[in-house]
Description:
By secondary structure, the protein is of the alpha/beta class. It has three helices and four strands. Helix 1 links the parallel strand 1 and strand 2. The termini are far apart. About 15% of the residues are buried. The model is unreliable at about 125-145 (pLDDT under 50).
Amino acid sequence: MEPLTEHRGVSGPVVYGFLRLVRVSRARQDALHDVLAEYCHRHELALHGVFTERTAGTERSAAFTGLLDVLDLHGTYGVVLPALSHLGPKAIAAPRQARITTAGARLLLVRSPRAPRPAASGPAGSPSGRGRRRSPGPAPALDHDT
């Protein structure tokens, strides 16, 4: 009998990472590379390479051109970035983002841009005018029965 898919060495969709590291320490570079690898592992993606741009230049760098070349390969699913800022300043990032999506690749962000928060308002009958703030995450589990 064949083992279940979860027990086989099935590789996930192929992705490539892109890092824009201008004047960054080796430790920071290694940490960002590890973040990409961990994200891919957690989401069952196959990270086949990471393109690193080291100069603050124009939209057409060697690293970005190389990234576009691999996006044309059969089976490439997308591009993984730590954050959208790794595509460069807004004037460069917008055309780069368009080129990635036009190539048919998905743009995957480890840290997605934050949406603006709505203004906090307290309950109508609150004497201080401030409501109780809620935690954005789930409540922690208790170690014992209550």
